[in-house]
Design goal:
Distance between the termini: 186 Å
Helix content: over 70%
Strand content: under 5%
Order of helices and strands: HHHH
Number of strands: 0
Radius of gyration: 72 Å
Number of domains: 2
Pfam families: DUF2046
Number of helices: 4
Keywords: Coiled coil
Length: 267
């Protein structure tokens, strides 16, 4: 529908140009010839001399592939090929406007027909150019759509890859966290057991040291007690010996003062 509207617009432009050219040709003829200006008042004057009213749907005369050679035979052989904006198909016989346009071209003066045929050929070229541009536009839109689809597929692929990598990283992180927690728990339990063993060994060592110290103290006390007793015993023996020595000395002193008495037993 958009392509048909463009073709109709180009046809309208061509028709306007044809009308202007025909009017210019008529004005030139009126200025050049003495009685040429009276053609406007002559009833049997050619239709193109009376301003050449070109219909709005001038483009209906153009057919794809027309030669545009500028001959009347090519004009008569022109058939409508563009669909009407409101009807799916139309021919020259069932379109009053196209019939009127064809009749207008048939009634145009021979000097205007080559110009009109040139305009028709130009319009054919413009229409082919418009079709080529429309095809190029359609192709570009299709390429753009394909590129957009490829871009969406690439974005989806990259997003899926990133999601997979994120999931893998999350699993790896969870594994690392579990491993760290397990290692921390193992180290905590091991250190706790070792600390408990060290504390128990410390208590045992302290108890053994206390027992050994008490044993040594008891032994020292016993030895001290024995030493005291031995010293007292020796002191008592010393006192006894000193007493015996004093007695002996006293006895000796008494024996020197008196003669010794001889007993019968000694005799």
């Amino acid at each position: 529908m958009a392509e048909e509207e463009e073709e109709v617009g180009v046809g309208g432009a061509a028709a306007s140009a044809a009308a202007g050219a025909a009017a210019g040709a008529a004005g030139g003829a009126a200025a050049a010839g003495g009685d040429a200006g009276d053609l406007l008042n002559v009833p049997d004057a050619p239709l193109c001399a009376t301003v050449c009213p070109v219909p709005t749907h001038f483009s209906s005369l153009v057919r794809p592939g027309s030669s545009g050679s500028g001959s009347a035979a090519s004009l008569n052989s022109a058939r409508p090929s563009m669909e009407s904006p409101r009807r799916s198909s139309a021919t020259l016989t069932d379109s009053p406007q196209r019939h009127h346009t064809h009749a207008f071209l048939e009634s145009a003066c021979p000097s205007c027909k080559p110009m009109l045929l040139d305009l028709i050929a130009d319009f054919e070229r413009e229409k082919r150019k418009n079709r080529a541009l429309a095809e190029e536009n359609r192709r570009l839109k299709e390429q753009q759509l394909n590129a957009h689809r490829e871009l969406e597929c690439e974005e989806e692929r990259v997003a899926n890859n990133l999601f997979v990598k994120l999931e893998a990283l999350a699993r790896e992180k969870a594994d690392l966290v579990r491993n760290v927690e397990a290692e921390e728990e193992y180290l905590t339990n091991t250190l706790s057991k070792r600390l408990a063993n060290v504390m128990s060994e410390k208590v045992e060592i302290e108890q053994s040291l206390e027992a050994e110290q008490e044993k040594i103290v008891n032994e020292l006390r016993q030895r001290l007690e024995l030493s005291k007793n031995e010293r007292l015993r020796l002191k008592a023996e010393k006192d006894q010996l000193a007493e015996q020595v004093r007695r002996l000395l006293r006895t000796l002193n008494n024996g020197q003062n008196t003669p010794p008495r001889v007993s019968r037993e000694s005799l």
